[in-house]
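pinging the channel bc i need a second pair of eyes. not urgent but kinda urgent?? the chain im working w is below, pasted from the shared doc
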Amino acid sequence: MPSQPDERRADPDALLARIRGDEARARRGRLKIFFGAAPGVGKSYAMLEAARAQRAAGVDVVVGYVELHGRPETEALLQGLEILPPQKLEYRGIALAEFDLDAALRRAPKLIVVDELAHSNHLGARHPKRWMDVEELLGAGIDVYTTVNVQHIESLNDVIAQITGVEVKETVPDRVFDAADDVELVDLPPAELLQRLREGKVYVEEKVRHALNSFFRKGNLIALRQLALRATADRVDTSMREYRSAHAIADTWPAGERVLVCVGPDPLSERLVRSARRLAFALHAQWLAVYVETPSLTRLPKAARDRVLQTLKLAESLGAETANLSAESVAHEVLAFARQRNVSK
């Protein structure tokens, strides 16, 4: 017979928070982010295709702003869609066309398309950043489709700069990305993206050579793709944990491998961490390293405590998510943590 689920009573605080969150979300518009590793993977194209599908289904759709970058295949998708006229401005003798937030609020469609969430607005705009415009639209009950590249996520800003040598100035707070109702990864292998770039399908010809020798080096694109895949997987993982918590599901779900290693002051812990990393790599799995401090372990000598910290730092440097917990019983806490994080090994 199949084992019965471990039925546990739902956490009342978590349940109340979920109900309040559901009520707040019902009043707000829904945000969908088309997410990619780099410019040119097809985010705007996928977004406009989705918008056209919504319009065909009878939804009131308006295009608030789309950055075409001279891509005719993207421009073709605008045909037949209602487009809000941009706000025309001049800054230091340069003509600008910006998203018109007030016009969008007056029009009040069910769904609006607003490209490039990380964009910085012109001086004098109501909000300095486009993601703030989008938050106002959501607060007015308007659904929004938008695009984001992984290099624009605030918490990854320094990592991206280290990988690419390019410091990205325009960023989106993690809380905005995390709060999105839906994130669709638009993925393209680096070789195909480089081919699109060489064919002039990403930037105009005069920008291609510089791009190939800087941001668009193949090694950069591989690393950026990995970061985008991981960020998307982390969102899915968080959604699954929230669902399991809200429904008091304690049993581990076989939704994907996840490896857990428990470390301590023993010098063998470093060997365990390296073994866990090899296992996780072989399984293409996420992995976690955890230390549980019990009352007896609080009296450890400084050298032993330093050894624990070094082991956790080693795990982190090898790609693990680390946690430092406190409990009366190591076994009970590790088991509870493993269930909460859906650990399989």
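so The radius of gyration is 24 Å. and Confidence is low (pLDDT under 50) at residues 1-8. — does that match what u expected or am i reading it wrong
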